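User:
I would dearly like some help making sense of a protein record. Take your time, and here it is.
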Amino acid sequence: MAENISSSFTKIERIVFMGTPEFAVPSLDKLLKAGYNIVAVITAPDKPAGRGMNLQQSAIKKFALEKGLKILQPEKLKDPVFLEELKSLNADLQLVVAFRMLPEAVWDMPPMGTINLHASLLPQYRGAAPINWAIINGEKETGATTFKLQHQIDTGNILLQEKIVIGEDETAGELHDRMKEIGGDLLVKTVKELTGNTLRESPQTWSDRDSLPQNFGGQTMLKHAPKLSTETSKIDWSKTVDEVYNLIRGLSPYPGAFTLLNGKTLKIYKAKKEITKPLIAAGEFETDKKTFLKFASTNGYISITELQLEGKKRMGVEEFLRGFKF
C-alpha cells in the first residue's frame, strides 16, 4: 500500500548531495537552479590518473568548486570524524546520484531520509550498470527512478519514475547523456512533491527470486545490472547479429566491446548490421582493405565503422584500413 512520507514536513531547508561522476552534475545543477539550499556535497576523494598519476578531481567536485559549495571527501563513510561532520550539517534530506553504497549510519541520518536516483525502471536493472545492460539486452525502453534508500541495494520504496524510449541505434553513451538530464529533472520534481506533501511511496514488492506479473512491462522475470567485466565485453560471434550489435551499443564508449584481430585487442564502438547468410564462419572477417571490415555472426555480419586497435587511437574504419597490415 502506498504511504505518504512527507505528512509532517512542509519545508526542506537543508540538503546534502552525494555524487561523483558526470552523470550526477545535471542533478546538482538543477537543484541549485530550483533554489534549494545545498549545505554540502559529498564526493569521492581525488585519485591519481593519467601517465603522470596526477590527482584528479571528480566531475561533481569540479562543479561544486565552481559554485562555492562545501565539499567533503571521506575515504571511509563509517569514519566517526566524517559522521560527526555530516551530523553537524543538520540536513533535512540527503540526495544520492551515482555514488557508492551508503552505510545505515549515513542514509538514516536526516529526518526525511535519503533519496537515490537510479537509471532504470526499478525493480528492473538493479545494480551498477543499468544503462549498459538495458541496451545489451535489447530493451526498447528504460527510465529513471527516485526511491528511498534502505538496507538492500536498489530495493527501497519507489517515489517517482519516468520512462525513456531507447533508440534503435542508440549507444550507452548517448542514452547516458539523455538520462542524466531527465534524471535531474525527476529528482527536482521529487523534492518539490516532498515539500508539497503530495508524494507517496510504493514498495518494490518483488524480490530477486520472484516472478513479475505478466503485465509488468511484458516481462516475467527481474533483470539485473551487475558491474561490467572483461568477460562481458568480449564478443561472442556465435550469437546473432542483433545480440552482438546490442553488446557493441551497450558498451560504447566505455568499456568497449572487443574481439581479436591478428592477436591484438580490437575494440568496436560503432557498427552496422547486415542480416544475410554469411559466406564465412562465425568470428571470421572480410575486408577490401580500403573501405570495409566486417565480422561474421550466425545470421549475418557486423560491419565496423569506428574502432580502436590495441596501442592505437580510436578512428574510423577507412583510416584504420589505410594503416593496418593484414
The longest strand covers residues 264-275. The chain has two domains: 3-201, 229-323.
